[in-house]
Design brief:
It is a single chain. The chain contains 22 helices and no strands. It is mainly α.
């Protein structure tokens, strides 16, 4: 094997153990779609017991939208705490702390039916959201800092792969023929306890981020030891040297705050790029399709809407696997451009097909095809890249807080889609997807002119480009 190209079992195990968190997040994204009517019935029955009347259709719609979207609201809040947690408890310790939060959320959701309490289910979803906001930021941060430069994108995409696998498992477990029944849906919601416990058992034995140890803690010997575990027999001194150079540059740099991310030009430009890519990935329509695909396929009178939704899960996984190999060959910027353009086209096709369903029954086939193609291009472009592009654009001192802000913004946009897609769809019908298409075309144009390629470049090389732009601006002033 070529020097510098070895992939060790320690590295593989560290990535695998960390992405178990993303598996849980995907599971609680995918398991809420199919049993919608059963859980809504539980809400109605509880309301009847308390008030001797059923909920209005509008109240039930808004309550269900809240149930779906409150996970994203919780994640929006907790993601802002990532910088503080990651820098004080370390990357590995922070992931384990977040994992503890998941246990409380699982218990709340699991006992909601027994307690005849929709509130417990909603609280459980919110607390699970707190866990999601932390983990979906901490895991890419950890992977970015332990992976070798030439495999950084591929390993980071494993985070999205675990997420899509989690969605698929959630879809399977929520089937009425499995656990998505009136009796067993609370058990279905607690199954993420399995990856939670596995991570508790395996992750403490994984190395801490060497970059964190050397740059944040000034523990050079320990950093070298942990890096050697990750790299095996390879010479790690080149990487240690690069880390020491960054540490020297940051030694007299004050702690980066959220305000500085938007005030300092060398931070502001990558921050705007991160926010736009994260917003575009969520406002593309992807979460509307993932959360409400069964309802959409039912509207299209597809023969087996539930199993067609399972097809969406399969497409999710297959094309995320393809993205693992593409991202280090095609590059991040190229895949973003292709993804944004293809998703915009799919949104336009979805608008036309839904609008003409009543006149042209064959448009149901076009609708299903558009959904499948949409999911495919999302997973090879904006889907995985949005979660780790921020880590590549920032140096060590700003990386955790920048990732926290970008992740919070990502989840906030996801909340908006989950909360307002159904009411907006009721108001303007299929033209809601046209709104998504307009956003994506704007993102395509911005990416074309403003987003740099990060493939194969060290963190220092990428941040140096923004510092150079900052220096040129100051000279002009």
């Amino acid at each position: 094997m070529l020097k510098g190209k070895e992939v060790t079992w320690t590295l593989i195990n560290s990535v695998f153990s960390s992405v178990l968190a993303s598996l849980q997040i995907g599971y609680h994204t995918g398991n809420i779609n199919t049993p919608q009517m059963i859980i809504e019935e539980f809400y109605n029955d509880t309301w009847w017991q308390r008030h001797e009347r059923h909920m209005s259709h509008h109240t039930l719609t808004m309550l269900w939208s809240l149930t779906v979207s409150i996970l994203s609201l919780g994640a929006t809040v907790s993601a802002l705490c990532v910088g503080l947690l990651a820098d004080n408890q370390g990357r590995r310790g922070s992931i384990l702390i977040a994992n503890s939060i998941a246990l409380f959320a699982i218990v709340c959701m699991g006992i909601s039916k027994l307690a005849t309490s929709p509130e417990m289910l909603i609280i459980g979803r919110f607390v699970m959201g707190l866990y999601c906001g932390l983990s979906m930021t901490l895991v890419p941060l950890y992977i970015q800092e332990i992976a070798p430069t030439h495999l950084r994108g591929a390993f980071s995409t494993m985070n999205q792969l675990a997420y899509t696998i989690g969605i698929f498992i959630g879809q399977i477990m929520s089937l009425e023929s499995v656990l998505g029944t009136r009796e067993w849906w609370p058990v279905m919601l607690t199954l993420s306890l399995i990856p939670t416990l596995i991570q508790f058992l395996t992750f403490p034995f994984c190395p801490e981020s060497p970059r964190y140890l050397l740059i944040n803690c000034n523990e050079e010997i320990l950093a070298e030891k942990e890096l050697q575990k990750l790299r095996g027999k390879q010479d790690v001194m080149e990487e240690i040297k690069e880390m020491k150079e960054e540490a020297a540059r940051l030694r007299n740099t004050p702690e980066v705050t959220i305000c500085q991310l938007f005030r300092v030009p060398s931070y502001r430009k990558p921050m705007v790029i991160s926010l736009l890519i994260n917003a575009s990935s969520q406002l593309s329509g992807y979460n509307a399709l993932i959360n409400y695909s069964t309802k959409l396929f039912t509207l299209a009178k597809v023969a087996s809407p539930t199993y067609t939704t399972m097809g969406v899960g399969v497409i999710n996984i297959v094309f995320t696997i393809i993205a693992v190999f593409l991202v280090e060959n095609a590059g991040r910027r190229t895949l973003l451009l292709i993804g944004f353009f293809a998703l915009a086209v799919c949104d336009i096709v979805l608008t036309v097909s839904i609008a003409t369903l009543s006149e042209l029954r064959w448009m149901s086939h076009i609708l299903v095809l558009a959904v499948f193609v949409f999911v495919a291009f999302f997973e090879i472009g904006p889907g995985p890249i949005a979660w780790y592009i921020t880590a590549e654009l920032f140096g060590q001192s700003a990386r955790p807080v920048a990732m926290g802000v970008a992740s919070s913004w990502n989840w906030l946009n996801k909340f908006f889609v989950g909360m307002f897609y159904q009411p907006l769809q009721h108001a303007i019908g299929p033209y809601v997807f046209l709104c998504f298409a307009i956003i994506l075309m704007g993102s395509f144009v911005y990416t074309w002119f403003r987003v740099p390629e990060t493939r194969g470049r060290t963190f220092e090389e990428i941040t140096a480009e923004f510092r150079q732009a900052d220096g040129l601006l100051m000279n002009k002033l």
